[in-house]
């Protein structure tokens, strides 16, 4: 707090009790930090670190079961913890505002965007209808939204995710609050959109002198936007300081570990893999047709003319933003959906058109690890039963399959005795290991990892990536790795395929694609990656943050 | 904590409560306990009706017609001995003992409640699974269900009864048919959402055949909502049977049911209200108990509903 001006927000020694039965007594404990006017403070930590609880307690939006037991939160000198609900309501919007992670659900679907922003003005000011409208239009304009008049009359579903988040920011900033709390505001957005939103937040904060409390788990974002960084672990602050210092020269081992776990944007040069061809697709396409008796038929080309070759022992990444068709391709290859055209050659057999009856014997060749570790295991069955399901389907005795499952549990780094447990007793990373063990139990030749590490914290992500690498070498697996995260792709993929709007726009060796991207879209993706200089060298962090 | 522990993290909570623990949790809910308790009592009353001081519920006695509750009459047995019988709930217009009829009537009402619930759940579950999983059959099945739902339940029931000879099976069929569409819709919606779950797709990738896939991964998700739906069907079945009997197209009058006791008391309701009052009280309390059980089950089984 070298800044001479009085801080907008001062959190001192905050402690919030958790209801009984949790893994610790307090959600946050002894948390102290401050946000100065015109400063962006990033609170960074992994899931369960207490960063969101901190943000919600500042807003006075804590769930009733969570009770502050010590400390104070002062907004412009006024204590939030002792304020009445009426006072808090007045402060929210007026002095502080919040933007949330999910722009899809934070807006009311049955009101126009303009009405929702004007509502803030109606409640907190006594401006007339004309003035309100003018102010909202000016704000939409400042958010760089195209055609503010039309935006004003639009409903949320007519806007893209990025536009919705801009609307949320407009609603948050329209009363010129002293403090903006942003809880993972870009996590649900595509990387190019994320870059634009981050730029917008920085621009607004500079122009209006707003203090920003920015909650994130992503060190790339931190490097991009933070003035100061607060690192939290298990409800406590382990380190805080200026961004350049914390990112470039971290002191606490936890911070060091977190930063080391962030994959670099510089892919290693990998020798080309020359194993046997495991999978080849040609002209693969998936077209969705909607409409019916009374509606006009509509066609959506989710994927078109996709040609992919994967060798044994090779990891091929498909990167792209949402709607690029990367998951559609994965699901076609796994034959969870039937492709509309093209061939999928596994060995010398084309599985693209096989009916389920003839496909079943070939199912074990291709296995999938899904994105969401909380939904990919049946909550009603023990993990042991989930793992042996496939082998037993293929004729293994339950005893033999269980013995094999025990081996695999050891291989993925879990205690074999845990087979009798249920999925909810495991963390996300552990579940992803179990899902991998389940896939490996089938002895596949091809493994499809569909955003398999996207839902995991960086430290866990790194371990699961290392595990994937290990099992690949052990079983000579061909891995098709679907991801939206260029950093992860850079770390694990031998070759990279970039997809946009259902088509492949570029493919080649990973290092090649990163160093000399051909397609404009690939360049845009690489440009947009947050804090892209971060992780290449500590000295460049400051530069990247101010860029 | 520099790395995720390789071995297990401490267990967060007990495994999913199914079986015994679930039953214990359910009975801790006072609403469930009260509803279930009353229904158990009614079941006992129906089952033990012959030994609860009843007469033959169909025995007509023209000498003692339309007597008020508490009327005492002397019954002379064949060997000449006499006993005094007290008509606790009076007699109806044919001199039959209302108390006996109401107790025997519990049998019919509960039988109908249970069989209608079981049948409509079974048929609805089957159709719902088919509609939800086999896409080409979805349209035809659901349009048929929409058609059934478009006709008011009572009218449909009357139409069904008129197709068969009056009797218990006809009445059950008449009540089951209008209930099916709701069950089908419920099951179909669950199947449609669960089939997209990654764990179901993982099971497909593991080569699990369709019947096993259904039984193992999809069906268990329908159990809790179906139990709840079943109780509401049971409550409405008791009412619909009463309505049908009241209209004179339900259970034939020689078998007492709460509905037809009330139907027979209808003409003289102003003068002798007891003919309608007592079966009405039993009917009302039973339906209330079933509904309480259903509400309690829903609150306990569906975590989203708790705290309302």
Q: How would a textbook summarize the main sheet of chain B?
A: 2 strands, antiparallel
For the record, the count of structural domains of chain B works out to 1
Annotated CATH architecture of the domain at 312-337 and 349-516 in chain A: 3-Layer(aba) Sandwich
* Global geometry of chain A: globular
Binned strand content of chain A: 15-25%
CATH architecture annotation of chain B: Orthogonal Bundle
Q: What is the CATH homologous superfamily assignment of the domain at 312-337 and 349-516 in chain A?
A: P-loop containing nucleotide triphosphate hydrolases
Strand arrangement, largest sheet of chain A?
6-7-8-3-9-10
Commentary on this structure:
The complex is a heterodimer of chains A (547) and B (308). Chain A is an alpha/beta fold and 547 residues long. Chain A has a domain at 312-337 and 349-516: 3-Layer(aba) Sandwich (Rossmann fold), CATH 3.40.50.300. Helices cover 37% and strands 24% of the residues of chain A. Chain A contains 20 helices and 20 strands. Chain A has a six-stranded mixed beta sheet, with helices on both faces. In chain A, strands 16-17-18-13-19-20 form a six-stranded mixed beta sheet, with helices on both faces. Chain A has a four-stranded antiparallel beta sheet with strand order 2-1-4-5, with helices on one face. In chain A, β14 and β15 form a beta hairpin. In chain A, α15 (428-441) packs parallel to α16 (458-475). Residues 537-547 of chain A have low confidence and may be disordered. Chain B is mainly alpha-helical. Chain B has a single domain (33-60, 105-305), classed as MetI-like fold, CATH 1.10.3720. Chain B is built from eleven helices and two strands. In chain B, β1 (71-76) and β2 (82-87) form a beta hairpin. In chain B, α5 packs across α6 (168-194) and α9 (220-246) runs antiparallel to α11. The two termini of chain B are 40 Å apart. The chains are: A alpha/beta (547), B mainly alpha (308). Chains A and B meet through α10, β16, α13, α15 and α16 of A and α7 of B. Chain B: Residues 106-294 form the ABC transmembrane type-1 domain.
